[in-house]
UniProtKB/TrEMBL annotation:
Keyword Ribonucleoprotein: yes
Name of the protein: Large ribosomal subunit protein eL6
Lineage, highest ranks first: Eukaryota, Metazoa, Chordata, Tunicata, Appendicularia
Region (Disordered): 1-29
Keywords: Ribonucleoprotein, Ribosomal protein
Pfam families: Ribosomal_L6e (PF01159), Ribosomal_L6e_N (PF03868)
Described purpose of this protein according to its UniProt entry: Component of the large ribosomal subunit. The ribosome is a large ribonucleoprotein complex responsible for the synthesis of proteins in the cell.
Domain of life according to the entry: Eukaryota
Stretches assigned to the Large ribosomal subunit protein uL6 N-terminal domain: 7-43
CC per GO annotation: cytosolic large ribosomal subunit
Length: 237
């Protein structure tokens, strides 16, 4: 048996290190699954002596004293926790239909968009409009936008019912086969005719109230930034 010296009460080798030094993995007796099933958890052992009862129940399978260094991670099931889709999504009081938001992430970060409605997933449905600043109909995360005091009247904007979370899902790319680099590259994304028609109808309804509000079109076209060279912030809507 290998010796394990101690210094100031601290052992030189850990329990897992001593497990390997003593070759405990070689001394373990292999037990098949069938034998392990048949083995009882408690066995009866005979005890000598008149006052000892003659027999005693002993645990047959004990917990191991030494454990391997690597442990398998188990998935913890939270008590009373819900998935993100089951959460109740509420909006900030500053975000109302028609609010002008500033996107902070994504390809259109720094752009100002008009908020249309909230989808079932909790994401925000927004648009530039596309004819004003080039931002098409897209989704945005509520905690990744800045809500401004500017509001556009969207009471006459009819949003089609088919524009939902499934509307923005794209087809998954096909897996590569043995041909590898000789395969054709995936085609670039292009908007469908349905999406183009929806964009035109929403843009047409938004352009009228935007044109009726002074400075609103220029405000939507201006890129957001923290320098003084940006669009003036002292304009009141």
């Amino acid at each position: 048996m290998a010796r394990n010296s101690t210094v100031n009460g601290v052992a030189k080798y850990s329990r897992s290190k001593m497990y390997s030094r003593r070759a405990q993995h070689k001394r373990a007796k292999p037990v098949t699954k069938v034998e392990a099933k048949k083995a009882a958890f408690v066995t009866t052992k005979k005890v000598g002596g008149e006052k000892n009862g003659g027999e005693r129940k002993v645990v047959a399978r004990r917990e191991p004293k030494f454990y391997p260094t690597l442990s398998l991670r188990k998935k913890l099931v939270g008590h009373g926790q819900k998935t993100f889709s089951a959460h109740k999504h509420t909006l900030r009081s500053s975000i109302v239909p028609g609010s002008v938001l500033i996107l902070l992430t994504g390809a259109a970060r720094g752009k100002r968009v008009v908020f249309l409605k909230q989808l079932e997933s909790g994401l925000l449905l927004v648009t530039g409009p596309y004819k004003v600043n080039g931002v098409p109909i897209r989704r945005a995360i509520a905690n990744q936008v800045i809500a401004t005091s500017a509001v556009v009247d969207i009471s006459k904007v009819a949003i089609p019912e088919h524009i939902n979370d499934a509307y923005f899902k794209r087809n998954k790319a096909a897996k590569k086969t043995e041909e590898g680099i000789f395969e054709k590259t995936q085609e670039k994304y292009t908007a469908s005719e349905q999406r183009k028609a929806d964009q035109k109808s929403i843009d047409a309804a938004l352009l009228a109230p935007i044109a009726a509000t002074p400075y609103m079109k220029g405000y939507l076209q201006a890129q957001f930034g923290l320098s003084r060279g940006q669009y003036p912030h002292n304009i009141k809507f």
